[in-house]
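Long-time lurker, first post. I've been practising inverse folding by hand and with some scripts of my own, and I keep getting stuck on stretches where the structure tokens seem ambiguous. Below is the full token string for one chain I'm working on. Before anyone asks, I'm not after the true native sequence, just a reasonable design that respects the backbone. If someone could post their per-position residues I'd love to compare against what I wrote down in my notebook.
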């Protein structure tokens, strides 16, 4: 369930000039307040979408908004709304989403760079995520058992799952076949270009 809604936050209050209170007639008791209305999700302000003004009498506590305000007050309310900037924090959620996307882009670039480095200098223990071509959504793993010159010796995982990151589920010694076969770096490069080899992991020893 997503919790979302609309909230208001007070931005500023100024005296309402030349307007007597329509209720108690106090001459200099009226104030104008401007509020920002903003959308929130999980109480994180996402974006502002409106400003609202309210006239208030400090003497008798009468509160008027919108068309209930006298014409002179409505004009001042319009001006005050125009002069009041929406605070940046009401965009926090949009900022967070943008920061998250930027982080994901950086992480993606770093992962691609690491994959390239691992493929160029393979080590025993490297794990390649393999994706069958065509419409298949199944993924499996190849594990490097030795690397010599430009050839790696790998064993294939005997399982495949419908998850582009199968390593957590499939990377158990008993799930690999016992027969190894060799692949050249050139072949690995082709597999990567074709999207058959989608990730390289080098687990910390
Ligand atoms: Zn009043």
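-- Answer (accepted) --
I ran through it position by position. Result:
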């Amino acid at each position: 369930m997503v919790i979302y809604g609309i909230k208001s936050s007070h931005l500023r209050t100024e005296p309402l000039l030349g307007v007597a209170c329509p209720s108690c007639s106090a001459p200099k008791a009226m104030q104008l307040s401007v509020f920002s209305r903003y959308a929130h999700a999980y109480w994180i302000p996402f974006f502002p979408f409106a400003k609202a003004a309210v006239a208030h009498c400090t003497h008798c506590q009468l509160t008027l908004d919108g068309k209930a305000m006298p014409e002179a007050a409505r004009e001042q309310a319009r001006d005050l709304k125009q002069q009041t900037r929406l605070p940046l924090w009401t965009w926090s959620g949009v900022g967070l989403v943008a920061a998250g996307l930027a982080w994901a882009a950086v992480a993606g670039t770093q992962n691609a760079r690491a994959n390239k480095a691992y493929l160029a200098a393979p080590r025993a223990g490297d794990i390649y995520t393999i994706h069958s071509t065509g419409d298949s959504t199944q993924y499996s793993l190849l594990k490097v058992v030795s690397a010599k010159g430009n050839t790696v010796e790998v064993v294939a995982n005997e399982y495949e799952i419908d998850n582009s990151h199968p390593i957590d589920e499939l990377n158990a010694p008993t799930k690999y076949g016992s027969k190894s076969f060799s692949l050249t770096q050139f072949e690995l490069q082709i597999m990567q270009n074709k999207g058959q080899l989608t990730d390289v992991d080098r687990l910390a020893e």
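A couple of notes from the structure itself: The chain has a mean pLDDT of 90. DSSP finds four helices and nine strands in the chain. Happy to go over any region you disagree with.
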